[in-house]
Amino acid sequence: MLLSNVNRRKAGRFVPVVLAGLILAACSTQGPQTPAVNVQAPATGTSAYYLQQMQQSSDDSKTDWQLLAIRALMAEGKYPDAGKQLHTLPQKVTATQQQELNLLKAQYAVATNNSAAALPLLKSTDVSGLSADQKTRYYATTIAATSNQPTLETVRAYIALQPLLQGDAAQKNLDATWQTLRKFSQQQTNNFVFNANENVLQGWLDLLGVYYRSNGDQNTLKAGVKDWQTRYPDNPASKQLPAGLLQSMNMTPASTNTIALLLPLTGPAAVFSQAIEKGFEDARNGVINQVAAAPAQPGTATPAAGTAAPAGAQGAVTPPATTTVTGSANAPISATSPTDPNTVVSPAAASVPGTTPAITAASATPATAAAPAPAQPETAPASSNAQIKVYDTNAQPVAQLIQQAQNDGATLVVGPLLKEDVATVAGLSTPLNILALNEPGSLQNHPNMCYFALSPENEARDAARHIWQQNKRMPLLLVPSNNYGTRVANAFTLEWQKLGGSVVEEQTFGSVADLKQRINGNSGIPMSGTPVVVQAPAAAAPAAVSVAGLTFNAPEQPAPVTDTPASGKIDSVYIVASQNELSLIKPMITMSTGSRSNIALYASSRSSQAGAGPDFRLEMDGLQFSDIPLLSGANPALMQQTVKNFNNDYSLARLYAMGIDAWTLANHFSQIRQQPGYQINGDTGILNASQNCVINRTLSWNQYSQGQIVPVH
């Protein structure tokens, strides 16, 4: 009995062991289990892991693993590999997979400089069906796709992204929202249209209005912000003010009690200096604001050709009593107008001996008919307390003048003007804030230095952005066959490629006599050219945009991926020519294309000169051209007085406007140097600082239409 009982107990204990063995054996025959996959969840693994899971999967989850692998590849900066995977995805995907695929394609397009392709993909995405992680990527990609040219949709994306973020990421998003809003002018914000239920957006726009209405007065700004916080307690920025706004509220302005103005008062560049100095002095003394308040006088825009300009307009400028002139300011100055239409208008060429301003038109009538009305320039208030000391950079070495200015109590230097002098100053160690009036060949980033110039490169970059915004993708450049034309072509092409464009073709032309010979021989200008080949500066690193922890790196391959074909029909022509040259070039283009051609024509400010009478305006019908706001009708009364004072010389009028803006920039030196996105509506353009504090100018664009000049919006 005892033995039998023992055997039964042993057998009972043995049964579970046998069953466990059978279960394990059965499991071993089923193969490894694939982890669960959720394409809407955050991708925390590496691309290698996701690719391995994709290879081991044979069911519907294979596409999910592939989508996660693509996301990881882009996060690792491996865009060529991500592109290959995008092209191998199956044609049929589920609705959830299609949403993720749209996001990935949009992200890939932005990262490979093809933002234009990203926007339709984002618009076709149903945001309500996205997970929180996907929404974060959706809004971040929308922001990155529109970062170069932000719109109200960009601001909406920032607002929608805010509740999805926490901690430092939330504060950075608030800071970026404010920085983006600051890129809009006050006139733009006044024209924005939004829905009645967009309370957060309304609050942001109201805060921006508070900032603009403070007009740089910190006490007014602080009081306005405090009142705004009371009215919008639920706005995210009410609890955490953007860093840029706090900086404006608490910033110590750069001292302008004593300003040293460094200009070549003698020699070939003296005529440039006179115009700049007069603009600077008029702004300091409040003359600009007085003229702006006065209505324009009809029929008295400019004097007839040959009419003498008022005293002081072209002779030696007589400074006010509070201005001290050091050097050879009283030496005779020649104001003879140049005769070479290819002469560089910008002071950037002033370092070349014998250089003179651009040609002055013989006719008296400026092209002011139906003038556009850009945003009113924001000239800094007059200051009777500011003392200005003018130093002649041709009388002493510029390094000695900087030291002398410091010994004389100057706190801010405006100038010098000549390239070689700017390069010298950039190499000095000085505590003075410096607003240089030119750009050296090699830019250096100094915390106390900014560069402001009316350079042809700046205008070319602005033209590239304008033409791109008008959805043109195959431009042809018509430029002079000299160094000036080369500089314009290089700057335009670099900016074009930065925007996402590819091929830019160019043609060069010679003198007016050469153009006349060609037109007499019935030789038009063919719509083709030689591709512009330029190399970006060696120091320029691939740009990367980071939004909400999502980084859009530059592609590993140097060739940009764009929506522009490698070749195609020319759809736009940018002409860099004088008025006389343009009057020959446009008919030659018509000879080749016909009068009904859809090719859009654009011209630089070199063609905008006094003397554009009715016949010329009719001949130029349809052509768009750029110019500074002062000569585009932003302030008609000031324009009339300026061109009259400078005897219809638009080149000197532009330098006069440069002097006005130099005064405004000097009074906002701390803001323009330290606040990203800070901008000023100036008389030479909308001013903002880029890398190394180079002042960029967005120009006004106008168009000849049925004998009139109308603004291009």
UniProtKB/TrEMBL annotation:
Signal peptide: 1-25
Polar residues: compositionally biased ranges: 328-345
Residues covered by region (Disordered): 297-351, 364-384
Record family assignment: Belongs to the LpoA family.
Function: Regulator of peptidoglycan synthesis that is essential for the function of penicillin-binding protein 1A (PBP1a).
Complex formation: Interacts with PBP1a.
Protein's name in the database: Penicillin-binding protein activator LpoA
Organism: Tatumella citrea (Pantoea citrea)
